[in-house]
Amino acid sequence: MSLHDDTDRIPPPGPGDDARTPHKGFWRSRGGIVAIGFLLAAAFLLFSEHRVHALGYLPFLLLLACPLMHLFMHHGHRHHTGHGRMGNGPRTEGDVR
Asked: What angle do CA 90, 96, 97 make, to 5 degrees?
């Protein structure tokens, strides 16, 4: 028996030892926290150096938001249903005219 042999101190495997420990995920690991810190520092430096360029486009982004909101939010008026149907037949519960 050598001086570095610790096999007598290792407990025998139990019934639940074959189950894997849950994976924490990358963003909660040590490398993920370092990556988050690096990305925050890079974002701060980019914004502080290019603030004039980013804020210069803000009025154009607001004007672009109007037609985009019209396109994506216009579906709530239900203008696309009922064009091909005629008559006053019986309605079902989910029927929108």
From this structure: 75
| The model's pTM | 0.38
The answer to whether 66 touches 59, Cβ cutoff 8 Å, is no
CA angle 36, 37, 43 (to 5 degrees): 85
Q: What is the token pair recorded at 29?
A: 């690991």
Q: Which of 32, 13, 35 is nearest to 24 (CA)?
A: 32
Separation of alpha carbons 90 and 27, rounded Å = 56
Residue 66 in tokens: 């109007």
Q: pLDDT per residue over 33-45, tens digit each?
A: 999 999 999 999 9
Compute CA 18 distance to the chain's CA centroid, rounded to the nearest angstrom: 33
The pLDDT of 3-16, averaged and rounded, is 62
Residues 6 or more apart from 91 whose CB is under 8 A from it?
A: 97
Cα separation values, 30 from 35, 37, 38, 96, Å: 9, 11, 13, 54
Quick one: tokens of 59? 């009025």
